[in-house]
Amino acid sequence: MACVGYHASHEQFAPSRLLALVRQAETAGFDTAMCSDHFHPWSRAQGHSGYAWSWLGAAMAVTRLPFGVVTSPVGRYHPAVVAQKAATLAEMHRGRFWMAVGSGEALNEAITGEPWPGKPQRNQRLLEAVEVMRALWAGEEVDHDGSFAVRNAKLYTRPSEPPRLLVAALSEDTARWGAAWADGLITVNQQPDRLRALVSAFREGGGDGKPMYLQVKLSYAADDAQALRGAYEQWRTNVLGAEASEELRTPQQFEAEALRVSAAQVADSVRVSCDPQRHVAWLQQDLALGFEQLYLHNVNQDQSRFIDVFGSAVLPALR
């Protein structure tokens, strides 16, 4: 049976609004939820950036849903502190919390003023962070020298089972690299051939048999024109390609680059349709690729309509 979740976008909505939306999603029949972890939004039109970890504690307390977060555990955070945050959530809500980790984006991580390393260096420090967090979750006292330092760190409050740790991958190279050490994969929807290649790379790199999650970018509204308009207004800064996330540091810089993005380009990256059955067909294709959990991110502002319609017309068709 398909497990379908609601994606809570901290870049687009205030934390109080997101709290109401995940409660609505649970009532509508969504099985699970996940959220982003941003310091800045991608554009000023999105306009929010609540602190994901505070919000997760509240959201998990007022629902019964499992939750996950996509984060960079090193950059603006220290890995030992991320390990403590994750352990606290996992101890309070046994079996309900997972974490996906990536090498980060300049938009969020460069705020500290520290040098922003290239991708190979960021991957190295990410792997170090994963090793440190796992050692802390195992109850070890950790000292570490490398991309960052840890001294005499030990977690005294730990969950009975550590949280599942996924690799967040947008490319075949990252999926293949992360397959060796991650408990699973999370990625975003792409054109079918590219998504199929990414899945193959993960499996070939050591991920065969490990769980795979998919974050689905879509825009649902009363008609197709409204759905496309909402996607363009809110999400055109997010279709610039990986190189933009490598270098751009402010919402204003993303907005300037997005001036050349057309509505057609947005529709190439976001599934735009007012027809729930069209979305069902897309999601069935995702499940056929082997994804066991789908997290639906309606990128426009009309969240309540999306939750209610998908709860009644889309989720039952996938079960």
Automatic annotation (TrEMBL):
Protein name, as recorded: Putative non-F420 flavinoid oxidoreductase
Keywords for the protein's UniProt record, in alphabetical order: Oxidoreductase
GO MF annotation list: oxidoreductase activity, acting on paired donors, with incorporation or reduction of molecular oxygen
Superkingdom in the source lineage: Bacteria
SUPFAM superfamilies linked to this entry: Bacterial luciferase-like
Residue stretches making up the Luciferase-like domain: 7-285
Keyword Magnesium: no
